[in-house]
Sequence to fold (326 residues):
Amino acid sequence: MPGGRERVRAKVPATSANLGPGFDALGIALSLYAWIEMAPADETSIALLGNGTEGLPSDKSNLLYGIAQRVFDEAGVRVPELEIAFAGDIPLARGLGSSAAAIVGALGAANALIGEPLPRDELFRIATEIEGHPDNVGPAIYGGIVTAIWDGERASHIRLDVPAGLATLVAIPTYELLTSKARAALPETYSRADAVFNLSRAALLTAAFATGKLDVVRHAMQDRLHQPYRAPLVPGLSRVLSEASARGALGAALSGAGPTAIAFVDEASANGRKSELETFLREAMSVSGDGRDVELRWLAPSAEGLVVEAASDRLQDALSEGGLAR
Ligand SMILES: Nc1ncnc2c1ncn2[C@@H]1O[C@H](COP(=O)(O)OP(=O)(O)O)[C@@H](O)[C@H]1O
Ligand SMILES: N[C@@H](CCOP(=O)(O)O)C(=O)O
Fold:
């Protein structure tokens, strides 16, 4: 491939979007990853190696192939046949940005395959256009915490380092909730009081992250724009939102469009209350009541976003030999 690579592999982090009040505006990258590999081929093949990918198409109708072709079209290059492989630890349709990771990884891999004609900010613009909002694709590309806007044509963002000592615990239910369904539950209009309630908290939360003032996070995580309307779709969410701060968390939120819940903890003041928070989240989010249908994970924030490298072996081989850095 002139100026490009023969085989490339993109690594993309999971994300938690919204963080409570920052609906469609704020998100954080988490250390759980998806890999998307591409190489030119004589005939297109798509290997889906991740858990939960069974129902996804493995022909040219797959999202990953379509996005790669969009990059080639924008760059005026033709690569009609591709060998694509996807593997990932990010569970699908749980509010941890699986679709954002797939979009960002496909954009990054396709761009690298043809010599990176598109700058990273253009990848962000295209990813936002495809996803419809910038709050999960932003941290997936840039890592850290990202605050962003989208006006339908242009996307602007600022990336913040994650404050030292901020730990995140996610409670992932076994059931899926598609973002499209969780968005359909939202009203068309909001009152001025609710708009002011959210914009003041989103601004305070962003400033708290930017300055490392973790004690302010607990006052800034409430939301009136999406969580109250999504709570009927996520059993236990209302309890988590109202009680998590009394159980050792700085605050809690619905992760992305759900159904995962995310709690923030200040390592410096957790004072041995992590197991209390774990027990509480497991109990509250369990539909079966015995907690076995909820997976708890302490996921460190990921400072790194999209990384694309030349690959010397196939993703299948790297996976089976334990060669993927998690
Ligand atoms: N590797 C992939 N290939 C094709 N489609 C994918 C891939 N990963 C995710 N998707 C699509 O994204 C959907 C999940 O996206 P979404 O409902 O936004 O949930 P979330 O992004 O929170 O996991 C899946 O049902 C699937 O249609
Ligand atoms: N702001 C969006 C975020 C969706 O994130 P996802 O990771 O669940 O796709 C929303 O809340 O709808």
